[in-house]
Design a protein that fits this description.
174 residues; alpha+beta; two-stranded antiparallel sheet; elongated; membrane; Golgin subfamily A member 7/ERF4 domain-containing protein; CHIC1/2
């Protein structure tokens, strides 16, 4: 009899309750609903390769006042811009070379540009993740590279989105 009761308790031990998950998800959605719109930092350079501009605007957005110091913002943007300054000229050279040889290679000469562009994007994403872990997650902010449609034409561009993370309720039990 005692073995049967402990067997039922063990079976109940492995049970997964979805109610708690639903409550957590509803609370998270409610917190996200009240978060302000993300801040968009657009590219401001003169050269754009596959939607990635050669530099981002370093002017401090007014909606970040009181959240992050203007010096930290400028330092983060300058790190991203230095990464772009290092990688984008190589991408442009390969793009010109690929366009010149495109007819002879049936388009295969464009592959190096595509791979280099993807590598540049990934290095910026890693840099932004490092910035998030170093500082911005502590300030309830999250920086990420996002593809958006341009306002002036039908083209796509990469922008830096600065999202406001909801503060975790400290009075809610674990």
């Amino acid at each position: 009899m005692e073995l049967a009761a402990s067997g039922m308790m063990m079976a109940d031990f492995d049970a997964i309750y979805e109610e708690e998950e639903d409550e957590e998800r509803a609370l998270e959605e409610q917190l996200l609903k009240y978060a302000p719109d993300p801040v968009v930092v657009r590219g401001s350079g003169h050269v754009t390769v596959f939607g990635l501009s050669n530099k981002f605007e370093s002017e401090f957005p007014s909606s970040l006042t009181g959240k992050v110091a203007p010096e930290e913002f400028k330092a983060s943007i300058s790190r991203v811009n230095s990464c772009l300054k290092k990688n984008l000229p190589v991408n442009v050279r390969w793009l010109l070379c690929g366009c010149l040889c495109c007819c002879c290679t049936l388009g295969c000469s464009m592959w190096p540009v595509i791979c280099l562009s993807k590598r540049t994007r990934r290095s910026i994403e890693k840099l932004l993740e490092w910035e998030n872990n170093r500082l911005y997650h502590k300030l309830c902010l999250h920086w990420r590279l996002s593809k958006r449609k341009c306002e002036t034409n039908n083209m796509m561009e990469y922008v830096i989105l600065i999202e406001f993370l909801p503060k975790t309720p400290i009075f809610r039990p674990d």
